[in-house]
Amino acid sequence: MSHWKVLAPGFMSSLQDRGRHAYRHLGIARSGALDWDAAWLANRLLNNARDACVLEITLQGPRLRLPAAAWIAVTGAPIQLCWRDITLPMNRPILVPAGELSLRGVGQGLRSYLAVRGGFQATTTMGSRSTDLRAGFGGIDGRTLRAGDQLPVGPQPAFRGRLPAPTRWWIGDDVDYSLHAKQIRYVPAGDPAPTLHGQRWRSSQRGNRQGLQLDGEPLPGAGASQLSEPVAPGTIQLPPDGLPIVLLADAQTVGGYQRLGHVITADLPLLAQAAPGTELVFQPVTLAEAYDAACLIRQRMVRLDLAIQSRQGPRNTS
Amino acid sequence: MSTTAHPVPDFTAPSFTALADDALLLQWGQQMDPIINARVHALVARIRRDSPAWLRDCVPAYASLAIFFDIIALGADAHHQVQTYVAGLLRDDASAAAAPTRSAVVRIPVCYHPSLAPDLETSAQALDMSVEELIERHSQADYRVAMIGFAPGFPYLSGLPENLALPRLATPRARVEAGSVAIGGNQTGIYPLAGPGGWRILGRTPLRLFDPRRQPPSLLVAGNQVRFVAISLAEFQQHKEAL
């Protein structure tokens, strides 16, 4: 095991994997990578387990000192990635020598993912290495990165090269990270809840890993909070100000606001990348359509996996 | 959140809604009814005993229950399958669900010393009783964990004597200490972690309600019965040091 030293933490970087799935009855949030598709790709590019622990980077990335060579991959929102002064490409495996790795500003979108071969080796708590920022456990001491932190990394291949060696192939990213209108599919709660699809919304400045707040014309009928009931990532809540909130991975487990429905699992990664000001158009779908959308994503993952396996990746060169 | 004047809903016929692509929500009305809540916990116990392969989690609340499942294991009509499963349990097992087993009583030491209880005196004034009387009534009631929520391990306890109900603070405190025992409306609860909070703080327990390194991490689960045991400041400090 070696350790990567955090020289500068970036804006908000935390270790995340697939999250905790069996502890909601104890009030414990799921946590986990918000853009699951991107985290998955970063892992699979390195032949990692699909739920290995990655670094989720928001808006501005960290500066890291690598004591030895390592296989890395960066996915998600386009971010400037440099080894010393050499700019490196995204969405492919890269064997980097020891030295300083910098992730700078995110150009479009919100969140980028850095994976290392074998995954970051943070301690597993309740079946996950994810950082629970609200409760303060998991990841690195339950918080975002700070300068001076040491990120535990498993064994890496010996590498005598003096320069980073990206593969010649990559996986094309077809996600639109711009502020242009995004279609978000949701399953409406039905009467008497007001619907979201009558207007265009914008993601607000006030979002975080707990929830994405929508800006727009306040919905009528908002107000009375009700008896607290379970909520889930994807739940759309209507607080008294009439501006809906879509709950994300760090949301609490019960809530007392009116529920307007839920964003389908397939579209949660789009919300994870909706920078403040992104236009969001909500489209009502059925549960069957939500299921089909999830199947399409799994099929895409299988295709990508096959494509990655057929290339020379970390498995073959180490 | 009325506690009276509604007929008790038929427990065997909840409303079913999709909470998420991988979760079904069962609802039994909008009231804090202790009988309904006890039946929810009995149903959770029944499902956990049964432990179907697709089950990921059961999250009970006052009069509702979310069942999280593995959608890949169940396939396209997962919600319908889970609904059929639960409806079957409710039909076949109505008598068992109606008579929940009593769970063990968890005793929680609470120090009501003013140095740990910023709202004790003002609460006693608002309730028009002496501090001693407030402590006695609060510590001698039988409570039940109606649900866990708000924060990891935070128990919402039902069973607060009616004459102890207190409105939440107009402005929540930026920091409530871990272990603070508080009243909010007609409920009492315990803050497992330090953080913001708007309930009125009457005392503090030296016990750790939530510890991520412990298994299980939460001291209490929904359905537990709870008794408070009043302790002195010296006992509180001894207990703290022993932890």
UniProtKB/TrEMBL annotation, chain B:
Residues 14-220 form the Carboxyltransferase domain. SMART domains: AHS1. Signal peptide: none annotated. GO terms for molecular function: ATP binding; hydrolase activity. The keyword Nucleotidyltransferase does not apply. It comes from the Bacteria. Keywords: ATP-binding, Hydrolase, Nucleotide-binding. This is Carboxyltransferase domain-containing protein. It comes from Pseudoxanthomonas dokdonensis.
